[in-house]
Amino acid sequence: MAQWGKADFKQLKELQEKIQALGKGDFQSFCDSTAKELAARLLAKVIRRTPVGETSSYMEITPQGKKQKVTDHMGGTLRRGWTAKTEAEAESGGQNKDGVAYAKSLPVMRRGNEFIIEIVNPVHYASYVEYGHRQEPGRYVPAIGKRLKSSWVEGRFMLTISEQELKSESAALIEKKLARFLGEYLNGK
Predict the structure, then answer these.
(1) 116-143: average pLDDT
(2) d(CA 162, CA 159)
(3) How far apart are the C-alpha atoms of 53 and 56, rounded to whole Å?
(4) Which of 108, 124, 140, 143 sits between 20 and 30 A of 101, alpha carbons compared?
(5) Angle, vertex CA 34, rays to CA 33 and CA 40, nearest 5
(6) Cα-based distances in Å from 163 to 30, 49, 82, 154, 168
(7) pLDDT band of 177, cuts 50, 70, 90
(8) Is pLDDT of 73 > 80?
(9) pTM, two decimal places
């Protein structure tokens, strides 16, 4: 019978212990932090893409029958809504959190093998800006000082486009982050 020699399985045993320890909880925090990083990237994209209204002025008739110029500053509520809990908070300026800080504060839900973070814009007209809306041509809108011309306003698709962009980038980002995590964890760095 032939002899195969001696083998030292000490390193293989250490690797097995590290892999078992990895499965006990560190991986959960890795998944949570990765989900929050992806949410922050999505918020950065969608906030940049969200349109902001402009200052407008129009003439208004006072109760005394005199014409008075009224200047409205519209804008920013929809954009601030991405990092606000309520529409009132978005209107008032709220805490003016950036996307990264807001994403870190969001809870991560786990459903099966999926890690889910809900990103919601509480502003009531957000879906109309996202997907488009109908309107009555010829109707005068004092807030903008103009009559409506078309019956359909195209959506801006700020969230839809941002999601598609992130989806195309996410596999590479997750792969790079996972390789770094496993390298640090298994090499003990």
Answers:
(1) 93
(2) 5
(3) 9
(4) 124
(5) 90
(6) 22, 12, 14, 19, 9
(7) very high
(8) no
(9) 0.78
- What the block records as the tokens of 177 is 């982050």
> Residue 5, class by beta-carbon neighbours within 10 Å (0-12 exposed, 13-18 middle, 19+ buried)?
exposed
Sign of CA dihedral 11, 17, 21, 24: positive
Quote the tokens at residue 40.
């922050």
**Which residue type does 124 have?**
H
